[in-house]
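From the shared-data thread, chain only:
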Amino acid sequence: MSEYGKILSQFNRGTSAMQHYVGLRPMFDVEVMNADAKLVLGDEGAQPSPSNVAHGLSSMFKEIADTVRKEAATIAAVFPSPKDVMSILVQRVLEDRVPKLLEKLLLKPSLVNPPPMAEGGLVLYLRLLAVAYEKTQEFDKELRSVGCGDLDVECLTESLFLPHKDIYIECEQASLKQLYKAKMDELRSECQLSSSESSGTI
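Structure, as tokens:
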């Protein structure tokens, strides 16, 4: 098999062969990506909790890292330029598989009509964002330990969260206002209930 890799490398520096090899990896199948969403988000329509999401992301990233590690051994045995293939493989992971999951997990909320507190409010989005960022950073380190050629993994990982960083401050401020309003409404309800009970005992 390594002979095929050497022959293919003579054509277009082997780029087409590398991309074709990576594109055929089962880890990029639609069914696998759907399984990622099921693992991290749980049942469709269910509200995800930060703790469950953290556990799901840890499991998903471990599975991907283990697969990349196995692929690295095969790539080293087959291709004359394994670092180039690893760059393509890890880039595909960070530009395809991980973003597809994050798109489903981190739905950017409206700050004009924020999700109600009964559905977690803005604070749920912020907590999920924090969990996703932390776990992705850990995954970044794991990928670099496996080997990614000349790919700037750290930069690619950070770019996954740029759309969310752009609205983070505004979202944090809106969340604090929402939490404050919810607490004030709760206190008013308690005062009204206490007042009604006092009136009833007179």
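The chain has a mean pLDDT of 88.
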